[in-house]
Amino acid sequence: MTFISLLIVLLVALQCVVSIPTVSQKSSRSLNLPGRVPLFPKSQVNYGPSDYLRAMIKHNIHPTHPDDLPIDELRSEDAPLRKRSVTIGYVPATPYKYDPSGYYSPITIGQGDNAKTFNLEFDTGSSDLWVFSDLMDVQEIPAGRTIYDPNNSSSAIATNATWNCTYRDGSNSFGVVYLDTISIGGIIIKNQAVEAATNVSSEFLESNWTADGLVGLSTKPNTIQPSNYTTTLQNLFQSNNSQVTENVFTVSLRRPNETQGFFTFGYIDYDLVGNATVQYTPVNYTHGWQVSSEYIIINGTVTARPAGNFALMDTGTTLILVSDLILPLIYAPMGGYFNTTLQAWLFPGNISLSDVPSIVLPVGEANITLALQDMGAGKVGDWIYGSIQSRGNSTHDIYGDYFLRNVYAIFDIPGNGTGPLFGVVPRAPQLAT
């Protein structure tokens, strides 16, 4: 049986699994911090039915009213108690059509009849919000992209500022800055710095990258000069933004064969948390959403990483990048090898299920087991391109989408008062219904 066939068998076996138990019940803080959330926060006023279902599940309560449905029916995705009326702060995350390991999400720029919807990549590894614009050579822009035209936006205000982003993969974009009104999941931000591209590198013009630009959600400053323009993240959670009741955003990235993934801004989806414990760890926020990750567990064997090893939680990166010392431990037992042409680790496409190792990557004290199908990032002839590759000369690991699809991730801005926290709830593969 081929590796791909085995993946399908495994997915079928896991079809009914919604979440897996957390390995450690330790948490850097409690979820129930006094004074953190108003009594009736706007983001939760319609949560009553789902909150009730969660309480029944947590305490093993079964309905007794004659008209009640059995608990198993209430737990189904289509059950009325699972339905929410969340209209503020929810943004879908859709896999790219030609590269399903990446995601785009809609936001609007402008207001009234001049507002346009842009499909942008939400990137927790950077801090700039930039879009394709008519200031570029529009003939270079692939068909189907939405283009920002500040002259046709009644809310756009020109500035003398510029920006210049260079990403880890060497891609680059730069241009000029306008202030405009944006909406993210219904959250309105006025005078947001919208960076209109005048030039972008070829990576952003390829057909498999189908976004119209990028929204940075890092804790770091943006690249705008002069540097007195606040980031999207800062504007979303500013103290006078009455549309947001909790300074947190979350992400649930899904595989192409699963139900719709999403981001939330201003609230945590406690339906996904269920009766699990959110495991929080402090963030080294001077470098973005970086957390401690000081070991790896391969088939039950713990290999220590250097003390102080960090991993960046990066929705804008597809793969998982670790040090070169770790990669032979993962791939050599599978018969894998380093392909010098591709400069990447591959493993056999006909590998048996029993020979695929269990990989556990920690986030602080939370151990996250990678799902089997997240070990491979595509076929190369008879070989499979590994999703875990070298971080090169980077001083920290990068945990991209292939890692984040295994968790419900919570980005807590104020954290415990001393700085941001990153929280996870492990999740298992789930087929779309």
Features of the shown structure:
single chain; 433 residues; mainly beta; Cathepsin D, subunit A, domain 1; 3 domains; 6-stranded mixed beta barrel; 7 helices; disordered N terminus
Explain how this protein is built.
The chain has 433 residues and is mainly beta. It folds into 3 domains: 3-28 and 270-426, Beta Barrel (Cathepsin D, subunit A, domain 1); 48-82, no CATH class; 90-243, Cathepsin D, subunit A, domain 1 (Beta Barrel). It is 10% helix and 33% strand. It has 7 helices and 26 strands. It has helices spanning 3-13, 48-58, 71-74, 232-236, 270-273, 327-331, 401-404, and strands at 90-95, 103-109, 116-123, 129-131, 157-166, 172-184, 187-200, 213-216, 248-252, 261-265, 279-282, 290-292, 295-298, 301-304, 310-313, 320-322, 337-339, 344-348, 359-363, 366-369, 376-380, 383-386, 388-390, 397-399, 407-412, 421-426. A 6-stranded mixed beta barrel has the order 2-3-8-4-7-6. A 5-stranded mixed β-sheet has the order 12-15-24-16-23. Strands 14-13-19-20 form a 4-stranded antiparallel β-sheet, with no helix packed on it. Strand 5 (157-166) and strand 6 form a beta hairpin. The longest helix is centred in the first third of the chain and has 11 residues, at 3-13. The protein is globular and about 60 Å long. It starts with a helix and ends in a 7-residue tail after the last strand. Mean pLDDT is 81; it is low at 3-61 and 75-85.
Summarize this, please?
The chain folds into 3 domains: 3-28 and 270-426, Cathepsin D, subunit A, domain 1 (Beta Barrel); 48-82, no CATH class; 90-243, Acid Proteases (Cathepsin D, subunit A, domain 1).
